[in-house]
Amino acid sequence: NILFITIICLFFISQSAFAEKLYITDFFKVTLRTGPSLQNKILAMLSSGQPVETLRSDGDWTQVQILRKGEKLKGWVLNRYLISRVPWKLQVKRLSKENSRLKEKLDRIENELNKTTTTAKDTSQKLKINNKDLNKLRREHELLKKGAANYLQLKTNFEKTTSTLEAAQASAQKLTLENERLRYSRRNTWFITGASVLFLGFVVGMFMGKRQKKQKSMYYS
């Protein structure tokens, strides 16, 4: 019987480990008494999941200490009502809270991803327009070099076109770098999103596995 084996293990552990942090077992209201017997007076009722500090053992009983209304209260509890693991109720509450936190984080990441995608599209469109204008300036530049008869006029037009061309090239380069940064940011965002989903699946899978294992153990016991 798994319950019997658990009680025996807790008994031997309690003999050697003092000041250990234990918990009131799952789904119980446990009495805290003035002494190690059922005839002793009840000091308080302890709820499942309440942490207690062990002080010493006496047979089937363990003296524990709890914090109540800012003061320390000592009493005795049967060993079979004490466990070293965090109760399932508290684990479920903690996992549910973590699941909600991860969901909120995933929603924020998706929103940022949508914004990044929109910005990347706008930047790509601007880059195409800029390249079109740049090609136009290059053609005009070639025409000025070949077709101008007046040297001074050619020089003036050439310098003006060259200046405009350099400014357009700088703008195109800037837009290209910005587009690359946005693409890199989008890849990192997808990676973070995938990692968060995998971690959430791992946590939920681990929890469900423990629950199934416990249910099977309770079934066969």
Helix and strand topology:
Layout (H helix, E strand, L loop, with lengths): L1 H15 L4 E4 L4 E5 L8 E6 L3 E8 L2 E8 L2 E8 L3 E2 L4 H60 L3 H70 L1
Antiparallel strand pairs: 1-4, 1-7, 2-3, 4-5, 5-6
Helix pairs in contact: 2-3
Protein traits:
221 residues; alpha+beta; 66% helix; rod-shaped
Describe the structure.
The chain has helices at 2-16, 88-147, 151-220; strands at residues 21-24, 29-33, 42-47, 51-58, 61-68, 71-78, 82-83. With 221 residues, the chain is α+β, with helices and mostly antiparallel strands. The protein has a 5-stranded antiparallel sheet. It has a two-stranded antiparallel ribbon with strand order 2-3. Helix 2 (88-147) runs antiparallel to helix 3 (151-220).
Short account of what is shown:
The chain is of the alpha+beta class and 221 residues long. It has helices at residues 2-16, 88-147, 151-220; strands at residues 21-24, 29-33, 42-47, 51-58, 61-68, 71-78, 82-83.
Strand order of the largest sheet: 6-5-4-1-7
Helix content: 55-70%
Mean pLDDT: 76
Span between termini: 5 Å
The global form is rod-shaped
String of helices and strands: HEEEEEEEHH
Query: What share of the residues does DSSP label as strand, in percent?
Result: 15-25%
Please describe the biggest sheet, giving its number of strands, its sense, and whether it closes into a barrel.
Answer: 5 strands, antiparallel
Rg calc: 36 Å
Number of strands: 7
Structural class based on helices, strands and sheet pairing = alpha+beta
Number of helices: 3
Query: Which regions are unreliable across 5 or more consecutive residues at pLDDT < 50?
Result: none
